[in-house]
């Protein structure tokens, strides 16, 4: 049976590292929980760290956070849809917004629920995902700052998630200037300038973060210790929070090449034949998870030990060569995961989630 381990000591080490750094730079921050896909065991581990602000892109996940600890500030981190505004106002204290009509609907719903809902206006800074264009920002704000039961508490931006545009000091200075312009024009304080996500952390560590930037939304670096500028692990952090374990359910010596007439497999792929491999064999292992659970390109492993050849919906196939590690049926193969691999595994109903 395949399962996922979360190593709580490694998670705490990363959390404490980030907390210390953000305190040093006087920056507020929230933890993004969307990677955990609403797994209540893992959400509890997150809350046990002492987290007081949780961000997620699924309102059902924020509802679980509120059910565990209603005092935690919850932030909905994608533009809300009209059809889930009732739940957004009910379970999210703050939401990221970039559409005027949506904010008007939030105001109406907040009045109905007799709640104050806080808003971060997202500003487009080049990656072309969500965000109000900078030239339109003052007019946009003028139409919402007096709406009942909503309060603009920040300006934010998102980078690197669509087109790979990286944050820079110049882009973040511009975001800070937008805040100053609005505050001067409307005599209204905007407490937060939310610089972005894990990808912006290296700028802070390299002392390149403008002083006006005072809020972060952090997920990937917490869970993987990752420097998203160069792909390295940040010194002082740990890349071993998650570990995927899969059991070998068959291991036999087999030919390197398939035998028979070839057609496309269920994934639409046609095997290419290297005739130089005829007559050769290797040990092949089958693991008890498949493409339904994770794309092999998001698995991290030592390719000197084996190679993941591919798979079907519920099995992955390994080439173990001469099997130098002497693996046997029933043994576990262990993988580290890239972010999208962890997201797929955590979203898989079929993979057991454990805490170590």
From TrEMBL:
SUPFAM superfamilies: PLP-binding barrel
Residues covered by the Alanine racemase N-terminal domain: 9-225
Domain of life: Bacteria
Coiled-coil regions listed in the entry: 1-28
Cofactor: pyridoxal 5'-phosphate
Keywords: Coiled coil, Isomerase, Pyridoxal phosphate
Name of the protein described by the UniProt record: Alanine/ornithine racemase family PLP-dependent enzyme
Annotated source species: Echinicola arenosa
């Amino acid at each position: 049976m395949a399962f996922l381990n979360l190593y709580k000591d490694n998670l705490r080490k990363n959390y404490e590292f980030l907390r210390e750094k953000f305190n040093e730079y006087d920056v507020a921050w929230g933890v993004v929980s969307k990677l955990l896909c609403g797994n209540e065991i893992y959400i509890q581990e997150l809350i046990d760290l002492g987290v007081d602000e949780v961000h997620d892109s699924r309102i059902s996940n924020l509802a679980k956070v509120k059910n565990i600890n209603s005092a935690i500030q919850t932030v909905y981190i994608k533009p809300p849809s009209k059809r889930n505004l009732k739940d957004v106002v009910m379970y999210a204290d703050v939401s990221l917004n970039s559409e005027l009509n949506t904010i008007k609907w939030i105001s109406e719903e907040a009045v109905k629920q007799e709640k104050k809902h806080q808003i971060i206006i997202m500003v487009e800074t080049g990656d072309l995902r969500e965000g109000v264009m900078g030239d339109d920002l003052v007019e946009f704000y003028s139409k919402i700052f007096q709406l009942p039961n909503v309060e603009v508490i920040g300006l934010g931006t998102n980078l690197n998630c669509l087109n790979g545009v990286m944050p820079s000091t110049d882009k973040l200075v511009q975001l800070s200037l937008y805040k100053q312009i609005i505050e001067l024009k409307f005599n209204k304080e905007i407490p937060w300038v939310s610089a972005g996500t894990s990808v912006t952390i290296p700028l802070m560590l390299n002392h390149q973060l403008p002083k006006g930037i005072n809020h972060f939304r952090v997920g990937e670096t917490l869970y993987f210790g990752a420097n998203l500028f160069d792909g390295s692990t940040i010194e002082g952090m740990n890349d071993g929070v998650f570990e995927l374990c899969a059991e070998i359910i068959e291991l036999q010596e087999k030919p390197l090449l398939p035998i028979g007439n070839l057609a496309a497999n269920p994934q639409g792929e046609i095997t290419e034949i290297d005739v130089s491999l005829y007559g050769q064999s290797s040990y092949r292992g089958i693991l008890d998870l498949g493409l339904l659970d994770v794309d092999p390109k998001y698995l991290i492993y030592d390719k000197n030990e084996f190679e993941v050849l591919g798979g079907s919906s519920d099995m992955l196939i390994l080439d173990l060569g001469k099997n130098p590690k002497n693996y046997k049926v029933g043994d576990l193969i262990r993988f580290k995961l890239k972010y999208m691999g962890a997201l797929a595994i955590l979203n898989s109903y079929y993979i057991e989630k454990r805490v170590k």
